[in-house]
Amino acid sequence: EKGGFESFMDKEIHDQPQAVGDTLLGRTDVDGRLILDDLKIDEAVLRSVDKIVVIACGTAAYAGHVAKYAIEHWCRIPVEVELAHEFRYRDPVVNEKTLVVAITQSGETMDTLMAVRHAREQGAKVISIVNTNGSTIPRESDAVLYTHAGPEIAVASTKAFLSQITAAYVLGLYLAQLRGNKFPDEIALLMDELRDMPRKIQTVIERGEYVRSTARSMKDASSVLFLGRHVGFPVAMEGALKLKELAYIHAEGFAAGELKHGPIALIDEGQPVFVVVPSPRGRDSLHSKVVSNIQEIRARGARTLVIAEDGDDSVKAFADEIFWIPQVPTLMQPLLATVPLQIFAMALATAKGLDVDQPRNLAKSVTVE
Ligand code: M6R
After folding, report:
1. Is residue 68 annotated as a catalytic residue, yes or no?
2. Measuring CA to CA, which residue among 315, 366, 311 is closest to residue 112?
3. Model pTM?
4. CA–CA distance from 202 to each of 14, 28, 49, 279 (Å)?
5. Euclidean distance between the first and final Cα of the chain, in Å?
6. Mind listing the pLDDT tens digit for each residue in 2-12?
7. Is ipTM over 0.95?
């Protein structure tokens, strides 16, 4: 049941700290080494993998996009992310050295199932990251990593997304451990960062009222854009998808670096644009690049809605609204930066009088191709 919340979606947003915590439960042995006991693929096979292909649809595919940044960085294995229905009906290069990771909340998405079958026919091993126990896709996979986020009822995916990212990160760290890409203490440190995320997600949820009131004031918006770089890019796309699904507003997520290659032409007076700002403490110039993107769109009249880390004063001069999130390394940021975007879409849809749990034309699990 809704547990006193207005909607299942609202409840599931609030479930997120617990969902991420549960995804992480029982993943280390007494010596602190990662174990994935529901992973039934020979370690030698996993050591010989030369490519990972993530297949998924919708929000689950965005979780895959986030995971690509982390897994490539940690494991130095090339990772491709592909929509399952596109993967299935072309002629993808997949063989015994390919590890396919299928991500799905329901475990029943037909597009993803068909892609899993196709990959296995080509000799690839398939690990699925699934929320629903006993569903079809895990049964047809070589191994499964359950997210343990609990049932997700609302059509719009929220807690499943955060737990999919978490599970994919655990898989990435497991591969890094197995293949010797990282020292045990580095892995332990990253696991500690992950274990600290539920507390920080809770903080973001507690700051939700400001997001809600901003959303209510924007219920007549006809288009909202979302920008991000690096892991902030799939977060931007996820924010846009939530708004389309729930509020029936035209929304698009862009890689911030792509702006000047076209999308900046969309910016005119009052155009709302969300920008996900990476940690200012991160390496390279990611942060300053995004801050200049905010300046560029602001100068052209955009209304800027900025998601930034606590203490990041550099965005203040160019932001119409700022949604603060706790400080975390950039790779962990999607687990926080997504939350205000979920709350925004939900609150705006509610302000328009729409049913947030059951948007028009959509089904919770898409069991036809
Ligand atoms: O059950 P799955 O994770 O396989 O579902 C995939 C998509 O259909 C799903 O994420 C969809 O995009 C959601 N409605 C997004 O909120």
Report:
1. no
2. 366
3. 0.97
4. 8, 24, 37, 19
5. 31
6. 989 999 999 99
7. yes
